[in-house]
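Limitations
The structure tokens in this dataset are predictions for the assembled complex, not deposited experimental models. Users should treat interface geometry with appropriate caution, especially where small molecules or nucleic acid strands are included. An illustrative entry is reproduced here so readers can see what is and is not provided.
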Amino acid sequence: MDFLHEVIQLYIERKDWFLELTGAHITLSLTAVLLAGVLGLLLGIWIAECPKVSGPVLTVANICYTIPSISLLGMLIPLLGIGNPTAVVALTLYGIMPMVRNTYAGITGVSSDIVSAAEAMGSTRLQIMLKIKLPLAMGVIIAGVRNMVVMTISVAAIASFIGAGGLGVAIYRGITIYDTAMTFSGSLLIALLAILCDGLLGLVEKKIKKGMHLI
Amino acid sequence: MEMIRLEHVSKSFGTQKVLDDLSLSVNEGEFLTVIGRSGCGKTTMLRLINGLQKPDSGDVYVEGLNIKDADLIALRRRTGYVIQNKGLFPHMTVEKNISYVPVISGHKNKEENRRKAIRLLKLVGLDESMADRYPSELSGGQQQRVGIARALAAEAKLLLMDEPFGALDEITKRALQDEMLALQEKLHMTVVFITHDIREAMKLGDRVLVMEQGRIAQLDTPEMIRRHPADAFVRELTASD
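Predicted assembly:
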């Protein structure tokens, strides 16, 4: 109970600091989410349309995903220095994989009967993509977005180790000055942020699936 | 006038020869039914006619134009295509499904498209209250009617139908067959209709094409096929009629 009391005390005393860190954390995550979202979507569409490149692209995306986050950040420092831009690049590289994989799976999972009917009716390739494939793949793609957002928010905590902002700063400082309450306070906010975003995106996912009559 | 002509068309998938030197001519306004075993090349033939497949050798002409030289997108938009089940877009309402070809062809006037969709719904025997439903909320027979309405929205002179009534119960099937005949009488379309039901083929077709292993076993009026089957396969087929 003492510990919890200490945490609450910390939140009250350093309210502004935590708010600032939360704001920075959201900005950092959101930038990476938007970049990974757009790039991953485009890459996913590309490999779904050109099956020849799907193997290599998925392999590269998988490799990026399996590099431990701390070492990916470390490897980027000589190239990009320290600070927020490096963190954004690393988080984007991580986020691309779930986006590419889900976009690819969603698009290639659309029934070939439906695609063939659209083609037989005189749709152009672009019309098939925009009017048939993407809307029908949207449920799977949104699931990928959800996955990616939660992951980005939690991995963004590591970014403060290379001098980027965000709630990782509280965690890192807590570790260096042996203040467990501070580390915990930062972690708790990250967890809450992730849960909140997951819940909101879950609602969006449901709404989209209902709108598309996929469930 | 001649609507479709196939000249010495051959098509293989891998080592499997699906169409073997097939030549055929379909007149404007004719109702041609095509029957044969699974894998005899019926669907491939249909897909050649709107350029979804290309022949390995031989030529396909539609409206007198070799489809090698035709604008395939424009040709397909003028050609109605109905397939068994699954052809409707599950994420679009009945109205949006029917308006699909007009919309992708650039006709975006919503009121006009809706009016047209409702007129087509009535034409195929459905109530206009169906317009805002989704395909999953319709019965099999209703879905198939919507499929036909959608094909007609292109104001098609040529209708390609691939076992459109294959999955329906006998009663619904018969009702739709009668309506198909009435529609064709009214709209004077050229129809190529694939089926695996000999009774359906005989009932609907002005001529019936019996296919066997990518070749024409017999192509004649139902009457002649019944009276003078060309070979044992056709005889066996019509015996069950």
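Some entries come with short summary sentences. For this one: Chain A touches chain B through 20 residues (CB under 8 Å).
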